[in-house]
């Protein structure tokens, strides 16, 4: 299987997962067909932890690949949005660099394989439903965050 076929399959799986996470799959598909962001509401499958782009990127390099869940980036808004499990609220409450968005909050998403309106997936959904664990995210933002990325890994 060529690299482009593998990527196409991965993007299709990620897109299908995002569509399944939406209460209105038809709106998601229509938005993406029109090259627009699609609102996908949190609370049934995952919650959203929001960080500033720069501090979030510094934390991101500290997370091992197998522990990564989807992360959406918007440089124009200086934001990263981490998809985390539904029980993450309490564990991330004391992480001052992260703001938890409530269940029912709509995250405007591009499809997994394309940038739309300056927004793109730093780590794309892969269709598996895997999310960034709150303990992993808290540790990435926690003590030692001043270390150089090579030292933190």
Provide a concise account of the structure shown.
By secondary structure, the chain is α+β, with helices and mostly antiparallel strands.
Defining traits:
alpha+beta; 5-stranded antiparallel beta sheet; two-stranded antiparallel sheet; 6 helices; globular
Characterization of this structure:
The structure is a single chain. The strands form two sheets. The chain has a five-stranded antiparallel β-sheet with strand order 5-2-4-3-7. Strands 1-6 form a two-stranded antiparallel sheet. The protein contains six helices and seven strands; from the N terminus they run ααββαββαβββαα. The radius of gyration is 15 Å and the shape is globular. The protein is of the alpha+beta class. It has helices at 3-21, 25-33, 53-60, 88-92, 134-141, 149-152, and strands spanning 38-41, 47-52, 71-74, 79-84, 99-101, 106-109, 120-123.
Residues in helix, %: 25-40%
Overall average residue pLDDT:
90
What's the helix-strand series?
HHEEHEEHEEEHH
What is the terminal-to-terminal distance?
A: 32 Å
Instruction: Tell me the structural class.
Output: alpha+beta
User: Which regions are unreliable across 5 or more consecutive residues at pLDDT < 50?
Assistant: 145-153
How many DSSP-defined strands? 7
- Quote the beta fraction: 15-25%
Radius of gyration from the alpha-carbon trace, in angstroms: 15 Å
**Number of DSSP helical runs:** 6
């Amino acid at each position: 299987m060529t690299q482009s076929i593998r990527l196409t399959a991965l993007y299709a799986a990620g897109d299908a997962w995002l569509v399944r996470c939406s209460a209105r799959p038809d709106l998601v598909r229509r938005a993406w067909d029109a090259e627009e962001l699609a609102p996908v509401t949190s609370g049934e499958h995952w919650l959203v932890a929001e960080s500033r782009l720069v501090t979030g990127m510094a934390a991101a390099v500290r997370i091992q690949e197998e522990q990564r869940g989807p992360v959406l980036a918007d440089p124009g808004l200086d934001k990263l949005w981490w998809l985390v499990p539904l029980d993450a609220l309490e564990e991330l409450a004391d992480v001052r660099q992260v703001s938890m968005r409530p269940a029912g909050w709509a995250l405007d998403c591009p499809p997994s394989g394309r940038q739309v309106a300056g927004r793109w997936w730093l780590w794309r959904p892969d269709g598996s439903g895997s999310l960034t664990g709150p303990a992993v995210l808290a540790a990435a933002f926690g003590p030692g965050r001043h270390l150089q990325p090579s030292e933190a890994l």
